[in-house]
């Protein structure tokens, strides 16, 4: 039996696992751990059902810099696109590659893939969550503020996959999180309930509010994401009408916290929609540090799923 540790959502990770990943990624970034041979002879299969810049490139570069190789596998170019089952694909790929990373529409498809694969499966984003993004974001927050416990993150915008993972990641690591969304666009209610339970253990707070002004009070970080996630293009006009008037991150919203507040975004940004150019191009924006940290965190994740 091969070693099998998946990373499908942060709910499965103990707070200690998250800390270990953050500390390891930081050491890798600082050159304190030599990972150049960790993936020697290993192959990562990367299945993409949606586009990607950061996730694709950071995993591919990480594998290369760790002595391994990554295969880009577009869903529609695989027989999956012609109806081959996920079960058969998982079993066959398990005979060729050592790890699978998949970006899919449905989280259930990802679970099925992981169930039938006998090698580790990493979630590269699903409709439900984006765990690898939030792990590197926690590293970025830790680097900027020197701590996680007691930090306040305000997420303003759509209660989507990124918001869901942010809720779990913050609640597990002692970060206070306040999420402001319009009615009907709240984060997944089961995720919110789990975050509340995790926060009781870590001693942090979880808040879901309507008004961005309430969420950003005393915030160290204001985080947003697109109002129109991949696959939601048909709802674009309606969503922009609901979100833009009240949920766009502007300099006024940032200064209203009354303290030095960093701006975060997982990217890609839709400038002029969820955030103004003024904010994303300003000195308080740490979006490119977030993007860079994806590379360091992917290396820590690859080691972790392989039990290194
Ligand atoms: N943030 C993120 O996952 O970016 P990509 O869609 O470019 O991979
Ligand atoms: N919420 C966005 C994240 C992109 C990285 C989406 O799902 O499209």
Mean pLDDT: 98
CATH topology of the largest domain: Rossmann fold
Reading the helices and strands in chain order gives HEHEHEHEHEHEHEHEHHEHH
Helix content: 40-55%
The total tally of domains equals 2
Strand order of the largest sheet: 7-6-5-8-9
| CATH architecture classification of the largest domain | 3-Layer(aba) Sandwich
Largest sheet: 5 strands, parallel
Portion of residues in beta strands equals 5-15%
Poorly predicted spans: none
Q: Mind telling me the CATH superfamily name of the largest domain?
A: Aspartate/ornithine carbamoyltransferase
- Report the count of strand segments: 9
- Which CATH class of the largest domain is shown? Alpha Beta
Structural class of the secondary elements? alpha/beta
Global morphology: globular
What hetero molecules are bound to the protein chains? phosphoric acid mono(formamide)ester, norvaline
Distance between the termini: 17 Å
What does this structure look like?
With 308 residues, the chain is an alpha/beta fold. It folds into two domains: 10-130 and 294-305, Aspartate/ornithine carbamoyltransferase (Rossmann fold, 3-Layer(aba) Sandwich), CATH 3.40.50; 133-290, Rossmann fold. Helix content is 44%, strand content 14%. The strands form two sheets. It has a five-stranded parallel beta sheet. The radius of gyration is 19 Å and the shape is globular. 51% of the residues are buried.
